[in-house]
Design brief:
- This protein is mainly alpha-helical and 166 residues long.
- The chain contains eight helices and three strands.
- Strand 2, helix 7 and strand 3 form a beta-alpha-beta unit.
């Protein structure tokens, strides 16, 4: 596939749809489960959803990594698998894309408030985001999607980390 920026100059690209709600509707993602755990525990389910989006015409598919940061993974005892989860997520999406779609490494907020409202410093947030992005850098996603941020400082921390790594 062409460089994504060149492709965007030519046409509108179609993004995939939801992952979590599809997995919930299929009974795969149960209440209280860590969605990112399925990357290791049930990769075929993740791969199937990605493949279905590509078959439906999606030009970009997003990894199942919305909450794949150390703080959120720690809630499920998975913080030690952060690198493996993030890397494998890009691998699965790349396999489903089969040179027919771009792969977006997507992630959301850390789940903890930054100072002054919370106790997480800006630098600590950059470090947490950087850790995730470094984990996927070798897998070479086509783009990074920073999504669903409500705190502009947190979004900036994510962007600083992304630029530092890529």
């Amino acid at each position: 596939m062409d460089n994504i920026l060149e492709e965007l100059k030519k046409r509108v690209l179609v993004y995939d749809g939801a992952m979590g709600t599809v997995l919930q509707a299929r009974g795969i993602l149960k209440k209280g489960m860590c969605p990112e755990s399925l990357i290791l525990d049930n990769p075929s389910a993740i791969l199937k959803v990605h493949e279905e989006y590509v078959s439906a015409g999606a030009d970009i598919i997003e990894t199942n990594t919305f909450g794949a940061n150390r703080l959120k993974l720690k809630e499920f005892g998975l913080e030690g698998k952060l690198e493996k989860i993030n890397y494998k997520a890009v691998e699965l999406a790349r396999k489903a894309a089969r040179d027919k779609a771009y792969v977006a490494y997507g992630f959301g907020p850390l789940g903890k408030m930054l100072e002054p409202l919370g106790d997480l410093s800006f630098d600590a947030a950059v470090g947490l985001f950087r850790e995730m992005i470094e984990a996927v850098a070798r897998a070479k996603p086509d783009l990074i999607l920073i999504e669903t941020m409500t705190d502009i400082k947190e979004a900036k921390a994510a962007a600083v980390a992304a630029r530092a790594v890529t």
